[in-house]
C-alpha cells in the first residue's frame, strides 16, 4: 500500500471549483514537486492531505501509524521559549520516552520474577523506540539544522516573541525537519531563506531526510536538485510528470502542443459543420442540417478544452534612451551601522561593506547576492544615492533613467481595473507616451493576465499578482537601468519564467540590470557579473553568473580540503639540490629550453594584455558567450603562466 493515497478530491469555495477529481499516490521516500499557477489549489491539496481541510468529497488514505508533518505559513511557537528550546520541542516524544525509560530503571531496582522480566522487555522496546526517534545525540542535529537554515549561535537564546516573521518561519521549518515525519508537506519552504539556506535545505532533503516529500516551491533550482517527479495542478486536476523539473518543462510543452493541435483541428471541424448548417438550414437538406446541429451541440459539450498558453513571449518593449557608457561608478564606498542589535541580541557595530569599488557599464547585468542581512538593499541604496554612505563616492552616468522595483512598495488605487492601472503607470513614468487600451491589455497578457483577469480591480489581486503588475509596468516604462530587489518573492514559476524571458536581450530589454535575488535560476539566466557580500563586511566582484561563481568556489574549497603532505615525510632538501635533481630526473618542464620558457611567457603576457583590453570594452559584455570565452581563456592562460614563471625563477637562481 502507498504511504498516502488521495482519491478523487473535490473542493470548491462557493462557485469557484478548486479541486475537481484530484488523485495522487505517494510512496515512502518519494520526492515530489507540486507546481501550478497561484490560486490553482496547491495549498488546498496540501491542507487536505494534512487533515486540516474537510473537502467536499473524495478520500485521503494513509498507512497505519504514518506521521504527516505540514509547514504552515503562520507557525505557532511558544512565545517565552528560546529559539533553541523551541527547536528542541521537535524531540518532545523522544524526551517522553527517555522519561519513561528512567521510570522503568527505577522500578527494576525492586522488581523480581515475572515483573522484572516484563520491565526488561519494556526496556528493550523503549531502547528501540528511542533509537528510532533520534537516540541520544540530538544536540548536534539541532545545532546543525539551525545553522543550516541561517541561525547563529548568538540567536539561540533569543525569545520566540522577539523573532521576525522570516525567523519564525525558518524556526518552524527547522522543527519540522527535526521531527522527521513519514511525509513532510512543504509549502514554499524557501520564502525566507538566502542562497546558503536553500542549498543546505536541498542537500538535506535529497541526501539525509528519510521520509517522503511533497513540496510546493517556486525555486526551480531546488525542484531540479531534489524532486524526481513533478505533479502539476491544472484546472482542478493533477497531471503527473516523471523526472526532474527540466524534464517536466519539456514534457509539458510537448503535451500542450499536442493538445493545441487537437483543439485547433476540432475547432476547424466545428466551423465546417456550422457553415454547412447555416447554408442548408432551409430547403431540401434542412432535416440533415438539423441532425448535424444536434450532433454539433453534443460534440461541443464534450469538446477538447483549450490548452493554457504555450511558453512563448511576444512583448515588444519600448526602447529606453541610451545611457552613457558608464552607468554607475563607486569608489571607496563604506557603510556601517552603530548601536544596532547583532543577531537579535547584543548591541554593537555592523559593517556591511568597506572600501568597495565598482564600475558598471551600459548593458551589463549585475546580480547582488549574499546572506540575509548582509546589506544588499543598502548597497543598492548607496549606489543610487538614496542611502548615505559613511565613506566613498558614487556617480551615476549621463542620461541614466532608473526603474526601481522595491520589496515593500505597493501603492495602488484599489478600485482601478488592472489594465487601466498599467495605463496610469506608463503615463506617470512617461507623460509624452500613453498606452491604448489594447496595448495595455497586450502588456497584461504578456505577464500572464488573460481574459477577465485584466478587468479585475487592483484591490482584488493577490500579493503575487500585484507584484506582476508592477513588474509589467516597470519593464514597459522605458528605463535604461532596472534595479530589481527580490522580484520573484511572490511570483509563481510561470510568472518568474516570464520575467526571466523579458529581462534578456531577446525578450526586449537592452538596458543595464541590477538584480538582488536568491533565485539561482534567475541569476544564471540574466546576469553576467556578481557582487558577492559575505555578511561580515566583505564584498567581492566576479565575472559570470551564479553557477560560474559556485563552480570556482567549489574548486577553491576542494583545493583547501586536499590532504596535506604527511608530517612524517622526509625533510626537504635544499632548493638548489632539489632543482638539480628535478632536472636530472626529467621534471615537468625539464625538456624545455630556457629560451622556450621565455618565449612562451612573453606570448602569454601579450595575449593577457589583449584580453584585458577587450574586457574593458562594455560592448563585449553584451555578448555573454564572447565574454565568458575571454574570461575562461584568461584563467587558463594565467594557470599556465604561473608554473612557467616559477620554472624561469628556479633556473635563474640555479645559474
- Rounded to an integer, what's the Rg over CA atoms? 31 Å
Poorly predicted sequence stretches spanning 5 or more consecutive residues: 569-587
Largest sheet: 6 strands, mixed
Distance between the termini: 79 Å
* Backbone shape: globular
Average pLDDT across residues?
83
Structural class: alpha/beta
Percent range for helical residues? 40-55%
Largest sheet, spatial ordering of strands = 5-6-7-3-8-9
> What's the total count of β strands?
18
Query: What is the assembly state of the chains in this entry?
Result: single chain
Structure description:
This protein is of the alpha/beta class and 655 residues long. The chain is 44% helix and 19% strand. The chain has 20 helices and 18 strands. It has helices at residues 42-49, 83-88, 92-108, 113-132, 139-148, 165-179, 195-208, 220-226, 245-280, 286-301, 376-384, 418-429, 437-446, 463-475, 493-503, 520-526, 546-561, 575-584, 594-615, 624-654, and strands at residues 4-13, 16-26, 31-35, 57-62, 68-70, 183-187, 212-216, 229-234, 237-242, 326-341, 347-361, 365-369, 391-396, 402-405, 481-485, 512-516, 529-533, 539-543. The strands form four sheets. It has a six-stranded mixed β-sheet with strand order 5-6-7-3-8-9, with helices on both faces. The protein is globular, with a radius of gyration of 31 Å. The protein starts with a strand and ends with a helix. Mean pLDDT is 83; it is low at 569-587.
Amino acid at each position: 500500500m502507498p504511504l498516502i493515497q488521495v482519491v478523487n478530491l473535490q473542493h470548491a469555495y462557493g462557485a469557484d471549483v478548486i479541486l475537481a477529481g484530484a488523485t495522487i499516490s505517494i510512496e515512502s521516500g518519494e520526492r515530489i514537486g507540486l507546481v501550478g499557477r497561484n490560486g490553482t489549489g496547491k495549498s488546498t491539496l496540501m491542507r487536505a492531505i494534512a487533515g486540516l481541510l474537510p473537502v467536499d468529497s473524495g478520500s485521503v488514505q494513509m498507512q497505519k501509524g504514518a506521521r504527516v508533518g505540514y509547514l504552515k505559513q503562520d507557525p505557532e511557537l511558544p512565545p517565552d521559549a528560546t529559539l533553541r528550546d523551541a527547536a528542541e520541542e521537535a524531540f518532545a516524544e523522544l524526551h517522553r520516552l527517555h522519561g519513561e525509560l528512567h521510570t522503568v530503571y527505577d522500578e527494576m531496582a525492586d522488581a523480581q520474577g515475572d515483573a522484572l522480566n516484563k520491565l526488561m522487555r519494556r526496556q528493550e522496546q523503549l531502547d528501540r523506540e528511542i533509537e528510532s526517534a533520534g537516540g541520544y545525540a540530538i544536540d548536534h542535529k539541532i545545532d546543525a539544522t539551525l545553522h543550516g537554515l541561517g541561525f547563529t549561535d548568538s540567536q539561540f537564546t533569543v525569545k520566540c516573541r522577539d523573532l521576525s516573521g522570516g525567523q519564525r518561519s525558518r524556526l518552524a521549518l527547522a522543527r519540522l525537519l527535526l521531527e522527521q515525519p513519514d511525509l513532510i508537506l512543504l509549502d514554499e519552504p524557501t520564502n525566507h531563506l538566502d542562497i546558503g539556506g536553500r542549498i543546505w535545505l536541498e542537500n538535506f532533503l535529497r541526501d539525509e531526510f528519510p521520509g517522503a516529500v511533497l513540496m510546493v516551491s517556486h525555486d526551480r533550482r531546488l525542484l531540479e536538485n531534489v524532486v524526481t517527479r513533478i505533479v502539476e495542478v491544472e484546472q482542478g486536476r493533477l497531471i503527473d510528470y516523471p523526472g526532474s523539473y527540466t524534464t517536466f518543462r519539456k514534457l509539458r510543452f510537448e503535451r500542450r502542443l499536442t493538445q493545441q493541435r487537437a483543439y485547433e483541428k476540432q475547432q476547424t471541424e466545428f466551423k465546417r459543420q456550422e457553415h454547412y448548417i447555416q447554408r442548408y438550414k432551409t430547403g431540401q437538406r434542412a432535416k440533415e442540417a438539423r441532425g448535424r446541429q444536434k450532433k454539433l451541440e453534443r460534440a461541443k459539450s464534450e469538446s477538447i478544452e483549450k490548452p493554457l498558453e504555450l511558453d512563448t513571449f511576444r512583448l515588444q518593449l519600448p526602447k529606453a534612451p541610451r545611457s552613457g557608457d558608464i552607468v554607475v561608478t563607486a569608489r571607496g564606498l563604506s557603510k556601517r551601522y552603530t548601536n544596532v542589535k547583532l543577531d537579535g541580541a547584543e548591541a554593537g557595530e555592523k559593517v556591511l561593506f568597506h572600501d568597495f569599488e565598482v564600475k558598471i557599464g551600459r548593458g551589463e547585468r549585475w546580480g547582488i547576492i549574499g546572506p540575509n542581512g548582509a546589506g544588499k538593499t543598502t548597497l543598492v541604496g548607496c549606489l543610487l544615492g538614496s542611502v548615505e554612505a559613511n565613506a566613498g563616492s558614487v556617480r551615476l552616468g549621463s542620461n541614466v533613467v532608473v526603474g526601481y522595483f522595491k520589496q515593500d512598495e505597493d501603492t495602488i488605487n484599489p478600485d482601478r481595473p488592472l489594465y487601466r492601472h498599467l495605463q496610469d503607470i506608463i503615463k506617470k513614468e512617461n507623460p509624452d507616451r500613453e498606452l491604448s487600451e489594447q496595448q495595455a491589455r497586450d502588456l497584461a497578457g504578456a505577464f500572464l493576465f488573460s481574459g477577465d483577469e485584466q478587468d479585475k480591480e487592483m484591490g482584488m489581486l493577490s500579493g503575487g499578482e500585484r507584484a506582476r503588475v508592477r513588474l509589467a509596468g516597470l519593464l514597459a516604462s522605458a528605463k535604461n537601468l532596472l534595479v530589481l530587489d527580490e522580484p520573484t518573492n511572490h511570483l509563481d514559476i510561470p510568472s518568474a519564467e516570464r520575467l526571466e524571458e523579458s529581462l534578456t536581450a531577446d525578450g526586449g530589454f537592452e538596458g543595464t540590470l541590477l538584480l538582488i535575488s536568491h533565485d539561482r535560476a534567475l541569476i544564471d539566466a540574466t546576469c553576467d557579473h556578481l557582487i558577492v557580500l559575505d555578511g561580515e563586511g566583505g564584498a567581492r566582484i566576479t565575472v559570470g553568473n551564479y553557477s560560474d561563481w559556485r563552480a570556482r568556489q567549489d574548486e577553491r574549497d576542494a583545493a583547501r580540503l586536499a590532504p596535506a603532505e604527511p608530517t612524517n615525510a622526509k625533510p626537504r632538501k635544499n632548493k638548489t639540490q632539489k632543482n638539480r635533481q628535478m632536472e636530472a630526473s626529467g621534471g615537468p618542464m625539464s625538456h624545455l629550453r630556457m629560451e622556450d620558457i621565455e618565449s612562451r611567457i612573453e606570448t602569454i603576457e601579450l595575449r593577457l594584455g589583449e584580453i584585458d583590453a577587450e574586457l574593458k570594452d562594455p560592448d563585449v559584455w553584451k555578448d555573454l558567450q564572447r565574454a565568458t570565452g575571454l574570461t575562461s581563456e584568461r584563467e587558463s592562460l594565467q594557470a599556465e603562466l604561473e608554473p612557467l614563471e616559477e620554472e624561469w625563477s628556479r633556473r635563474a637562481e640555479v645559474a
